[in-house]
Amino acid sequence: MGQRKILVVDDEEHILELIKFNLEKNGFEVYTSDDGEKCIEFLSSQEVDLVVLDLMLPGMDGLEVCKKIRRIDGLDKLPIIMLTARGEETDRILGLELGADDYLTKPFSVRELLARIKAVLRRIEDTPRIKNSKVLRVKDLEMDTEKHVVMIKGKVVDLTLKEFELLKILIENRGKVLSRNLLLDEVWGYEYFGETRTVDVHIRHLRKKIGDDESGEYIETIRGVGYKIK
Known about the structure:
Layout: E1 5-9, H1 13-25, E2 29-33, H2 36-45, E3 50-54, H3 62-71, E4 80-84, H4 89-97, E5 102-105, H5 110-126, E6 135-138, E7 141-144, E8 149-152, E9 155-157, H6 161-172, E10 178-179, H7 180-188, H8 197-209, E11 219-222, E12 226-229
Parallel strand pairs: 1-2, 1-3, 3-4, 4-5
Antiparallel strand pairs: 6-7, 7-8, 8-9, 10-12, 11-12
Helix pairs in contact: 2-3, 6-7, 6-8
């Protein structure tokens, strides 16, 4: 596999230099941008493996950039790690709901950023390695783990990678209560330094997509513990 390409978008020059230096030292090919519009233009012509995106950008902010990336054909699954100096939980949750894969709050540890980048890229590498077709079923929900397809009553549901993995582990452990910490560890693939609220955000999104947000037919919340498939 060739050198992984990463685009770092931040309007603070010293942050760009710090991240670029450390990523290149760890074998990545790094591109930088200090502007949201330039980021979109760059991604329209240049292929990268992951984007590190600052929330507070001049003009088009990181949330809008994230939203636009997810609307571009071929970039809807591009991994995005969001950087934010904001402390409000709602901003972090909004970023995740718009399609960001992860977030880090400034000031952050470069080692932590590296760990998260490597974990996201590792998941991408591991995904195609499933060899045996396996169809999981729960009532009207059907999941093909080889084709990476989920259907409800025969209709395909478009899930993100994390939503798919969350649903998969819940179905494979049907009837068992899985804690938020266990889900973080299994789905994110490393010791997550953020809040278990991340799991709740993705579960809520997943429920909405499979039509379970009102009926509660598939995923049950176990208050104070985690989730299970009924």
